[in-house]
Design a protein that fits this description.
With 211 residues, the chain is mostly beta strands. The protein has helices at 83-93, 104-109, and strands at 4-14, 33-46, 49-50, 55-62, 71-78, 112-115, 119-121, 124-128, 133-138, 142-150, 157-158, 160-163, 172-182, 190-204, 207-208. The protein has one domain (4-205): Acetoacetate decarboxylase-like, CATH 2.40.400. It contains two helices and 15 strands.
């Protein structure tokens, strides 16, 4: 097994209301889960292959709770990635070279029944974790935008966090609101102003690298 590790930032949007029951070992509030996730890798490697500067996106659909499986997914990898980087990123995203269930990638991979062919495309992605703002655009495939939750009476920004000391994705996530829409490809997703998490992540073959 080739050791890998990376640190970066993510924006994830799903169909749950703010908070997302899945973060608390509960069932999704819509009965199903559709999600879009984007990650900017700031530092990292897979064996001898550097990963700094790369971007990846995952699109997911589960007809019921994630743990019941029968999921559908598609991986999108930065078109700037070399052949070696593409192979490395796809291995990480599909849960390979990872201890069993040690990362969100490995957990999700165990629930996917239909894995579409990966896409290599330009990924325009920016995310401000503390500011709870982000934008994603993959032409011909998906768009996502994230912003802070706002007080419904005053319109003021409301800040909330989720802390998961033993989580398999992040330790602390800033919670916001996001919308996502697929614009082509094999998967159809539309999410409007639902749960979003903005997080600094540090993952490896063995799971979350604790601060």
């Amino acid at each position: 097994m080739t050791y890998w590790e990376f640190a970066g930032r993510e924006l994830v949007n799903c169909t749950c209301e703010y908070g997302c029951n899945c973060q608390f070992n509960a069932l999704p509030d819509k009965g199903h889960c559709h999600a879009v996730a984007a990650i900017q890798i700031d530092q990292g490697y897979h064996g001898e292959t550097p990963l700094a500067g790369m971007r990846i996106v995952g699109i997911f659909k589960w007809p019921g709770p994630i743990h019941e499986g029968r999921g559908e997914a598609m991986a999108i990898v930065d078109e700037r990635a070399s052949h070696e980087q593409r192979e490395a990123l796809l291995k990480i995203m599909s849960g390979q070279d990872t201890d069993p269930f040690a990362t969100v990638f490995a957990v999700f991979a165990s629930t996917i029944e239909t894995m579409h062919e990966p896409v290599f495309a330009p990924i325009d992605f920016e995310v401000d974790v503390t500011g709870r703002r982000g934008k994603l655009a993959v032409p011909g495939y998906v768009e996502m935008s994230g912003e802070p939750i706002r007080n419904p009476v005053t319109g003021a920004e409301a800040r909330a966090q989720i802390c998961l000391p033993d989580g398999f994705e992040y330790e602390v996530a800033e919670i916001g609101s996001a919308s996502s829409q697929t614009t082509g490809g094999p998967m159809d997703i539309a999410i409007a102003s639902k749960y979003a998490q903005f997080a600094n992540i540090h993952l490896s073959t063995h799971g979350v690298v604790r601060s």
